[in-house]
Amino acid sequence: MSASSFHRALKCRECSREYEIAPIFSCEYCFGPLEVAYNYDTIREATTRDSIAAGPKTLWRYANLLPCDPEYRVDLGVGYTPLIRADRLAKAIGLDTLWIKNDTVNPTWSFKDRVVSVAIAKAREFGFEAIACASTGNLANSVAAHAAAAGMECLVFIPDDLEKGKVVGSAIYNPNLVTVRGSYDDVNRLCTELSMQFNWAFVNINVRPFYAEGSRTLGYEIAEQLGWRAPEHIVAPMASGSMYTKIWKGLQEFHQVGLIEEPKTRMSGAQAAGCSPIATAFANNTLNFVPQKPDTIAKSLAIGNPADGYYALKQMQETGGGAEMVTDAEVVEGIKLLAETEGVFAETAGGVTIASLRKMVQSGFIPRHEETVAIISGGGLKTIEAVVDEVAAPLHVQPTVESFVEARSAQQARIAGSPVTA
Amino acid sequence: MEKHVRLTFSPDLIKEPLIYQLGQEFQVVTNIRMADVDAKVGWVVLSLEGDDAEVQRALDWVRSKGVRIDDATLGDVVEG
């Protein structure tokens, strides 16, 4: 059975009109976004728990559910990341059972490797010779790495005021790196126009319907790693809202092809207060979000006009989930809490997720007994600026035992004398 | 040129007949493809067809009225 027999068309999410598989992204009639349509009956016949378990320990174990021919894959070993039982963090925030889906361990240290894996395979299948993206960090790193491994021409557009770590994290793979002088909106406008003029696979524009599908593997992995079942609650960070909606789609599909019981998971999303169009709309009880101008340290979530915002809000309604937003100070607290309790160093998006989760538990929105999975989507070394002034200063000593003992005693006296904080 | 935009109206603009005025003031053909308006916020996905400069003038005029203009389908294309 060939890969092409598993996915059959592109389908408009609004009006359900179908199109042949091609590098297109919106409906000609209503401009609604296009999504891949699958032959679930064919997938069900060809896929079992055993056949998946016998596959590679990467996202390609779910190849039957991915909208590309695996023959074109660029395999950096993406996915099948650990699902960690987080008892110390659970206790700290007041939950009985908490799991961390640790996507910091992907090849370029973020979940973007999942979406880029699918996008680059599809771009190669379509015959594109160049791959491109516009990004503030994680996506750029992943596209540049995958393009390098594939030997494809790569164009990466970034704002010109990015932190050095993020620039180097792309530049090291030697793409055509373009820094754009201008506001965030200017970069958006430029890249939209470029995507219409040049025959490049812009991963999150003309191959977006395929790219977005990579995030479903988070849902598949969580279900498989929990012993072929869905959790009661998932909390995920939201930028465009795409990953958040695709995790739920993944769980529903696993049920549709007979791998798990019907999921009853409540799906919740997390945003930074400085860029919270979706969480604000949820708080205002409307499906119509108002675009915002981002102002937050959580730059990987700084999408003021989220393409999937409406669908994310609908999903909250449908699943009984919700949304929360946290200040930049709370983001830093969230990063530190996760690191100090579970040994996982997340980037700012992870801080947003943990701090939002804590607020949802404190408010009673997530009851103590509800088994919850928190998505940690990227590694902390990418956003070291956020915490560099917030970590404890080291103990400076001379290379003698006396010096160490003296300094340590002084430190312990300081700690004992410091006021107790909550 | 045919341009597809998403217009977002704040509550104080919801009662203004801006799309009607757009068709009256400028040589552009307007075509509403999707829309949702309630008391708090309203948005319209609009196709605008006409001479390049005229479409641009029309959009500048809408923007000057305080309406936010975005690409109709993509949202922000710069990702994290």
**Low-confidence region ranges of chain A:** none
Q: Gyration radius of chain A, to the nearest Å?
A: 22 Å
Q: Which fold name corresponds to the CATH topology of the domain at 83-109 and 214-386 in chain A?
A: Rossmann fold
Number of helices of chain B: 2
| Amount of beta strand of chain B | 35-45%
CATH topology of chain B, anyone? Alpha-Beta Plaits
CATH class of the domain at 83-109 and 214-386 in chain A: Alpha Beta
Characterize this entry briefly.
Chain A is α/β, with parallel strands linked by helices and 422 residues long.
Overview of the structural elements:
The complex is a heterodimer of chains A (422) and B (80). Chain A has 422 residues and is α/β, with parallel strands linked by helices. Chain A has helices at 40-46, 49-53, 87-93, 112-126, 138-150, 164-171, 184-197, 208-211, 216-225, 242-256, 277-283, 309-319, 328-342, 348-362, 401-417; strands at residues 7-12, 18-19, 34-38, 83-85, 98-102, 130-135, 153-159, 176-180, 201-202, 233-237, 266-272, 323-326, 372-376. Chain A has a 6-stranded mixed β-sheet with strand order 4-5-13-10-11-12, sandwiched between helices. In chain A, strands 8-7-6-9 form a 4-stranded parallel β-sheet, with helices on both faces. The longest helix of chain A has 17 residues, at 401-417. Chain B is α+β, with helices and mostly antiparallel strands and 80 residues long. Chain B has 2 helices and 5 strands; from the N terminus they run βαββαββ. Chain B has a 4-stranded antiparallel β-sheet with strand order 2-3-1-4. In chain B, a hairpin with a 4-residue loop joins β2 and β3. Chain B starts with a strand and ends with a strand. The mean pLDDT of chain B is 89. The chains are: A alpha/beta (422), B alpha+beta (80). Chain A binds chain B through residues 14, 25-26, 29-33, 112, 133-139, 157, 159, 184, 187-188, 191-192, 195, 202, 204-205, 208, 239-240, 284, 286-291, 299-309, 349, and chain B through 4, 8, 10, 33-34, 36, 38, 40-43, 45, 47, 68, 70-80. β6 (130-135) of chain A pairs parallel with β5 of chain B, so a sheet runs across the interface.
